[in-house]
Amino acid sequence: MSNANINIVSATKVGDYSLRIVFDDEIVQTVDFGPFLKRSRHPDVRAFLQPERFANFHIAYGELVWGQYDLCFPVIDLYRNCIEHLDTMAQAA
User: Fold this and answer.
1) Which residues are CB-contacts of 77 (< 8 A; sequence separation ≥ 6)?
2) Chain-centre distance of CA 43, in angstroms?
3) How many CB atoms lie within 10 A of CB 21?
4) Which among 8, 39, 44, 77 is least surrounded, fewest beta carbons within 10 Å?
5) Distances from the Cα of 66 to the Cα of 53, 88, 89, angstroms
6) Kind of pairing between the strands at 28-32 and 18-23
7) Per residue of the chain (93 residues), what is the pLDDT tens digit?
């Protein structure tokens, strides 16, 4: 399935940093953003470790967004429940 064909229809907070995401083809993923947020060294990303800030997400044009795209992830990564690409980062280092 290509990224252009996948849309998020709803997202519900189910844990400190976990969201239950429903896609338009009825696939459901529970994505834990905690490890990504905790590993980040960027202060703008780490700011989402604040519970009230993390909880303030919305769906825009089929994408999961915080603020005005202050934080977002490729839909295909959410669909695959794979938001971290540590092997790619290690190869680049």
Assistant:
1) 83
2) 17
3) 22
4) 44
5) 8, 25, 24
6) antiparallel
7) 544 589 999 999 999 999 999 999 999 999 999 999 999 999 999 999 999 999 999 999 999 999 999 999 999 999 999 998 765 444 444
Q: Is 45 exposed, middle or buried (0-12, 13-18, 19+ CB in 10 A)?
A: middle
> Which long-range contacts link 83-87 to residues 24+ away (Cβ below 8 Å)?
83/31, 83/33, 83/36, 84/35, 84/36, 84/39
Domain at 3-92, CATH homologous superfamily: NE0471-like N-terminal domain (3.30.2020.10)
Distance, C-alpha 18 to centroid of its chain: 9
Domain definitions of the chain by residue range: 3-92
What pLDDT shows up at residue 46?
A: 97
Tokens describing residue 59: 């769906």
